[in-house]
């Protein structure tokens, strides 16, 4: 890639503004189509659980117990009864991939959530998931001093959590603009390189001096002629012309 004149490049972009606008428009159309027609919305229902009875000032065993409760919420023992009750046809692997349980640091609070493509289904699954969690915890730990209380009940999501129209369409428009700029840049570079090659070729052709081949002088063929008497070689006699007898007779008669 050769050196590029920035001012000339900006002028080229200004002349091709319609092309850039076309790329921007196509990017916006692609963003709208993906956001509203291709992307599957996910609705997340959230709830907050408090474990009452853990003594965090004691040994680290309480922290282990808390982590056990967090992992228990996403176990098959808790979620499979929920799947069966609601006829959730996507199976455990899909549900656990859309289920979260996280402990808030230095607290006894567990934040849980379930996401599906239907807002009401997400709420119903989370509500039954909490009840199943309570039941399985009692069966596993027995009647102990830790109680599971609900701080925030399962919410009914009003908006999908994975669809953000303004951000997604804005990114698509920016991508279309960048694609247009890059495409025009390569087009500009190709044109400039081709123009330089043509100019260099024309200069090379004009500097070549074409020399016509010199015409060879034609030499007339030598005609063999009889040697003169003076040039006759030694030992040879000069040829004498016979005299005209008729001329002699005419002189005598006169």
Topology:
Blueprint: H1 6-15, H2 17-38, E1 43-52, H3 61-73, H4 76-86, H5 91-97, E2 99-103, E3 109-116, H6 119-141, E4 147-152, H7 165-207, H8 245-253
Helix pairs in contact: 2-7, 4-5, 4-6
Briefly characterize the structure.
By secondary structure, the protein is α+β, with helices and mostly antiparallel strands. It is built from eight helices and four strands, in the order ααβαααββαβαα.
Task: Write up what this structure looks like.
This protein is α+β, with helices and mostly antiparallel strands. Helix content is 54%, strand content 11%. It has 8 helices and 4 strands; from the N terminus they run H-H-E-H-H-H-E-E-H-E-H-H. The protein has a 4-stranded antiparallel beta sheet with strand order 2-3-1-4. Strand 2 and strand 3 form a beta hairpin. Helix 2 packs antiparallel against helix 7, helix 4 packs across helix 5 and helix 4 crosses helix 6. The longest helix is centred in the last third of the chain and has 43 residues. The N and C termini lie far apart (114 Å). The C terminus is likely disordered.
Counting H and I runs of at least 4 residues, what is the number of helices?
Answer: 8
Strand content: 5-15%
Instruction: Summarize the amount of helix as a percent range.
Output: 40-55%
Per DSSP E runs of 2 or more residues, the count of β-strands stands at: 4
Q: Order of strands side by side in the largest beta sheet?
A: 2-3-1-4
Query: What would you call the structural class?
Result: alpha+beta
Oligomeric state of shown chains? single chain
What's the Cα radius of gyration? 54 Å
Q: Please tell me what the overall shape is.
A: elongated
Instruction: Give start-end ranges of low-pLDDT stretches.
Output: 228-232, 235-240, 248-254
Instruction: Please summarize the sheet with the most strands.
Output: 4 strands, antiparallel
- End-to-end span in angstroms? 114 Å
Mean pLDDT: 82
Order of helices and strands: HHEHHHEEHEHH
């Amino acid at each position: 890639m050769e050196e590029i004149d920035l001012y000339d490049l900006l002028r080229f972009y200004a002349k091709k503004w319609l092309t850039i606008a076309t790329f921007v428009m196509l990017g916006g159309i692609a963003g709208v189509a993906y956001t509203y027609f291709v992307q599957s919305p996910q609705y997340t229902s959230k709830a907050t659980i408090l474990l009452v009875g853990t003594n965090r000032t004691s040994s680290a065993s309480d922290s282990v117990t808390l982590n056990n409760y967090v992992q228990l919420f996403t176990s098959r023992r808790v979620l499979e009864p929920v799947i069966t009750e609601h006829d959730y046809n996507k199976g455990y692997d899909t549900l656990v991939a859309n289920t979260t349980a996280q402990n808030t640091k230095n607290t006894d609070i567990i934040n849980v959530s379930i996401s599906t493509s239907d807002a009401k289904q997400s709420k119903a699954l989370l509500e039954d998931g909490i009840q199943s969690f309570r039941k399985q915890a009692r069966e596993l730990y027995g009647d102990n001093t830790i109680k599971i209380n609900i701080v925030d009940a399962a919410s009914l999501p009003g908006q999908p959590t994975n669809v953000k129209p303004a951000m997604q369409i804005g990114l698509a428009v920016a991508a279309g603009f960048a694609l247009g700029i890059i495409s025009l840049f390569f087009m500009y570079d190709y044109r400039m390189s081709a123009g330089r090659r043509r100019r260099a070729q024309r200069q090379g052709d004009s500097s070549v001096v074409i020399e016509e081949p010199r015409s060879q002088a034609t030499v007339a063929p030598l005609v063999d002629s009889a040697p003169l008497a003076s040039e006759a070689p030694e030992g040879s006699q000069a040829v004498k012309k016979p005299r005209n007898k008729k001329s002699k007779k005419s002189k005598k008669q006169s």
